[in-house]
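Tip: read the tokens left to right.
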């Protein structure tokens, strides 16, 4: 066969592979190619759930030839995240991963990052779809809404007054969970009423104060759903401080270390989350694959020991809710 014909066949084969990958029908696997720089930008530094993400990401980065940087604002500030993004863009990072304080405020800067060839991966709390390549959703939203409701409905009762204590008014994932909670209540517990929604700014001290204010202003509240790590711990501490253990019940989305004592005391009957360290590992796997153009918006891929995942319109669901209870919480030491 002539060299010309061999060249034509090779070119056609390469074109077919490119089209297949772009359409998302190929299965990608992350590999440790040339070193790339990847940043993980949480809503704020210091929060335990995000530290668990960092630990998982750090361990995966070492295997994927990723130079890893964990950096973010000291409080839950969208503008603080924008400042961090601008610095990372100037330093020519290959991939920026982030959980958003505000989906729209972050978008213009991340759009500019993408225009400069930087891949953007959101996780936990999404940005606008135009501002990222992929979003790693913690868990299915209806399943999370059901898990949060189930954790308070039984101890509080089918006609209870309950309160919501969230992070900030514009936090994407918290608002999605609150909607899922409302949808589940409407379908399954129509007589449970949400009497107030307050915000703790993802700060333990602010969350404690907000929860105390709720319990004093609404003495008939029987449960607080707190879909934020700091908020759940703050609400549980408020119940304890006000002597309402056994009378008011709390659930939320916090790491096991932060709520262990409250689960064991019964203030928190159960609390859904997911394995934050493994989620951090998945973020790095997707970062590597995205940089190497091995996954498309609708594709199946293997993420090391984590298994196989599917992207649908750029959204990747990480896991089912992992529900911490008194019987299993000591199995999770993070």
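Filled-in amino acids:
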């Amino acid at each position: 066969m002539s060299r010309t014909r061999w060249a034509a066949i090779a070119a056609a084969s390469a074109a077919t592979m490119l089209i297949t990958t772009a359409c998302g029908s190929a299965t990608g696997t992350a590999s440790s190619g040339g070193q790339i720089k990847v940043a993980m930008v949480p809503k704020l530094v210091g929060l335990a759930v995000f530290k668990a993400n960092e630990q998982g990401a750090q361990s995966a980065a070492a295997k994927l030839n990723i130079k890893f940087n964990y950096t973010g604002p000291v409080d839950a500030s969208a503008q603080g995240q924008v400042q961090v993004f601008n610095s990372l863009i100037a330093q020519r990072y290959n991939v920026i991963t982030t959980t958003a304080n505000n989906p729209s405020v972050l978008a213009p800067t991340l759009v500019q990052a993408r225009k400069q060839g930087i891949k953007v991966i959101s996780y936990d709390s999404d940005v606008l779809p135009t501002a990222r390549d992929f979003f790693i959703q913690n868990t299915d939203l209806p399943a999370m809404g059901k898990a949060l409701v189930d954790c308070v409905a039984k101890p509080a009762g089918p006609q209870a007054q309950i309160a919501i204590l969230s992070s900030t008014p514009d936090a994407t994932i918290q608002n999605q969970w609150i909607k899922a909670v409302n949808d589940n209540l409407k379908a399954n517990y129509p007589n449970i009423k949400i009497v107030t929604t307050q915000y703790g700014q993802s700060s333990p001290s602010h969350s404690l104060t907000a929860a105390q204010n709720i319990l004093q202003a609404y003495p008939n509240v029987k449960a607080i759903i707190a879909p934020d790590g700091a908020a759940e711990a703050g609400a549980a501490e408020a119940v304890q401080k006000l002597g309402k253990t056994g009378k008011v019940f709390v659930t939320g989305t916090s790491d096991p270390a932060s709520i262990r004592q409250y689960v064991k005391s019964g203030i928190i009957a159960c609390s859904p989350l997911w394995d934050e360290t493994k989620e951090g590992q998945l973020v790095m796997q997707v970062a590597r694959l995205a940089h190497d153009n091995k996954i498309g918006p609708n594709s199946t891929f293997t993420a090391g020991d984590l298994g196989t995942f599917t992207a649908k319109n750029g959204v990747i669901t990480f896991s089912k809710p992992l529900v911490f209870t008194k019987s299993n919480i000591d199995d999770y030491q993070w």
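Confidence is low (pLDDT under 50) at residues 1-26. The first helix runs from residue 3 to 23.
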